[in-house]
Please model this.
Amino acid sequence: MNKLKEPNKVHEFDIPITMDDNTKKSFKGYRVQFNNARGPYKGGIRFHPQVDLDEVKALAFWMVIKTAVVGVPLGGGKGGVEVNPKELKETELEKISRGWVAEMADHIGPRVDVPAPDINTNPQTMEWMLDEYEKITNDTTRATFTGKPIESGGSEGREQATGQGGFYALEEIAQKLDLKPESSSIIVQGLGNVGYNFAVLAHNAGYKIVGMSDSKGAIYNAGGFDPEEIQKIKKEKGSVVDFEGVIKLTNEELLEQECDILAPAALENQLTSANAAKVKASVVLELANGPTTPKADKILWDKKIYVVPDVLANAGGVTVSYFEWDQNLKNQHWTEQEVLSKLEPIMKKAFQDIWKAHVDHNMDLRTSAFMLAVKRIISAMK
Ligand code: GLU
Model:
């Protein structure tokens, strides 16, 4: 258990680049390789101004737990760059992505460490990174990065996978708590890849999406939204708050609104001791990593609000990353149908295992998930 307290390896480095205006700038890059007892280190690379070593360590640890929860043969790691990508040109982001790989090329690889996208990184980022990696190493397996564009060895279904996995988790908890889609409302905080894809799936299944947000603010409408329409507005005008005729709120206010299921899909530490008591939902579905602080967790549990933990609710992404890696190594390309038909039973079994531990030991779902995962990791370490 002690071996799980600290990461195996920490990489911290500078990424110097020439900006488009010819000035030089340096960005802090990170990779934390936390644990590889169950397989190669695995986890995304985040581009965000808040990235620092403590955050990357926490995120890397959650990846160790996550891969064990879904039982894929991978370990856990995480990377990041302290940068605000919204202030940079695409050409500059490409230089940062390639610079990250130039630093890390000797420490990653198909059997060593397999990065993927996270907040503000995407298939394009992975394509730059893979290209740089191939130039440096001559590796042609394409299995060192997942979440790539399909043409570069990406998997069908990877783009929607995290939202899709979250939706399977929703179906499971809804069944346990007897929540029917037609009479259940959902608030989704965050309209990135995960929040958006989840909202579309839930909306199409008949749930009412009553609240949505992005980094600029939130909207609420008891009558419900069509997430695709909201995404269009965001793309055209810049934010969900440009959608007319509905209640405008801050992200903090959104979390306290009336709904049955609250799905934080943005950053860490959104539900805290300051606001957890005001949550009105009966389920918190953690699509983000670490959206609930430990104190908030306890408040929610005391209020009998079920928290479906991140290490389960958003594990669909890394599960399909595992499929992508596996396809690359076997030189195969599966159909989206094949991918989904493999993802669904994995998510559902992970949920059932955790639910059983919750019932057997009267523990919250996060503790149940951690208990299960730690057992698997320790047995692999032995
Ligand atoms: N960044 C995602 C996560 O936090 C995906 C990681 C991966 O696919 O390796 O789970």
